[in-house]
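Example record

One chain of 191 residues, shown exactly as stored in the release files.
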Amino acid sequence: MTAVTNLLIVGVGGQGTILSSRILSHLLSNQGYQVKVSEIHGMSQRGGSVVTQVRFGDEVHSPIIRPGTVDTILSFEQLEALRWLPWLKPVGKMIVNMQKLMPMPVITGQAAYPDGIDAQIKKTVPAAILIDGLSLAKEAGNDKSVNLVLLGKLSKSMNLPEEAWIAAIRQTVNPKILDVNLTAFALGRNA
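Predicted structure tokens for this chain:
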């Protein structure tokens, strides 16, 4: 029996976190896992925090993840990575896009974007993978494909065949943008 795995996808509205969770759901279901997903949209239309909890295994009873039990955090933005860091298991993994998206309090001058987030993450999770997903997405041909870059990087740490990932992407992504997303996935996988 496979233990339940907890995966947290965190980012900012408009970054493609929801599409990423849908691709993961298709992938994991296609591989025979039971999958439960819970999405939290906090002002996502205005660049607010978006969090998706993905739980999978042979038998999953609830979509809700408790703090301190996350196996992997996939973060689309630095500050979101820092915000959700306490949810990670002591031996958990992190993949962090080093992009900075300014939240509304920073934009309005009420707060400052913290310095040294990458160092704080590395201090807590020395094996954290920090990636410039935006540059790779631009290389793929669309800066909105950061989500597929990050899924590509995540795919290297999960014990699932690359072909299964590609099938799930084909199953989920709009055919009009499929090629650029497959390129972004490959760039992230090989980064």
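Notes: The first strand starts at residue 5 and ends at 12.
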